[in-house]
């Protein structure tokens, strides 16, 4: 099985879905570690409730040294695939170089539109009629890299930011676990 780490900064609802999917009997991967850059991230509690190992790698003034500590933690756990599930810190090119085609991200927009930390708010302010979510491989640019899956959602007259956010999250909770399984399959088949 492919050894997976999930990186979080907050609630961890996507992380929970990844762990649950990996625990299904037909799964080709195993979530061996959850790392948060925030010590008080709610997701850490959830991970512990699944008996998944957790680590905190707090913000350091020097991004590279913080990222190299993270590399070491991931290597110690023999991690082969890294899932960014609401990890709200930009990873340095130095970090990405250590894990080519081994980092995937979930983002709440139809990339390449609306990158960044406020994607949904920006999309709604722009007045878009279709929103969505994207899973993609991570390269050294922000919210950038080859797309794995995408799902679009129409904005209805009766929607507000919270109802739309809930619809996007529901879609993410299917799309991201499916992406993890798909990428694990490619790793096991030595396609990447
Ligand atoms: C998710 O909606 C994810 O798409 C978003 O953060 C949320 C985390 O929720 N990520 C980004 O905006 C990355 N740019 P969760 O902690 O409940 O999984």
Automatic annotation (TrEMBL):
Protein localization: Cytoplasm
Family, similarity comment: Belongs to the AIR synthase family. In the central section; belongs to the AIR synthase family.
Protein name: Trifunctional purine biosynthetic protein adenosine-3
Species annotation: Caenorhabditis angaria
């Amino acid at each position: 099985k492919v050894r997976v780490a999930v990186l979080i900064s907050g609630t961890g609802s996507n992380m929970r879905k990844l762990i649950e999917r990996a625990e299904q009997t037909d799964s080709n991967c195993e979530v061996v570690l959850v790392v948060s850059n925030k010590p008080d991230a709610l997701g850490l509690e959830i991970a512990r409730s699944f008996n998944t190992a957790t680590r905190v790698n707090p913000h350091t003034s020097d991004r590279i040294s913080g990222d190299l500590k993270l590399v070491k933690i991931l290597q110690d756990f023999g991690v082969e695939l890294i899932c960014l599930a609401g990890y709200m810190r930009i990873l340095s090119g130095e970090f990405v170089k250590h894990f080519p085609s081994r980092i995937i991200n979930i983002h709440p927009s139809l990339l390449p539109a609306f990158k960044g930390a406020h994607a949904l708010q920006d999309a709604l302010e722009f007045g878009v009629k279709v929103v969505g979510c994207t899973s993609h491989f991570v390269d050294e640019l922000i919210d950038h890299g080859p797309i794995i899956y995408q799902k679009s959602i129409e904005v209805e007259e009766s929607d507000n930011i919270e109802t739309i956010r809930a619809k996007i999250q529901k879609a993410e909770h299917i799309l991201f676990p499916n992406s993890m399984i798909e990428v694990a399959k490619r790793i096991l088949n030595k396609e990447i």
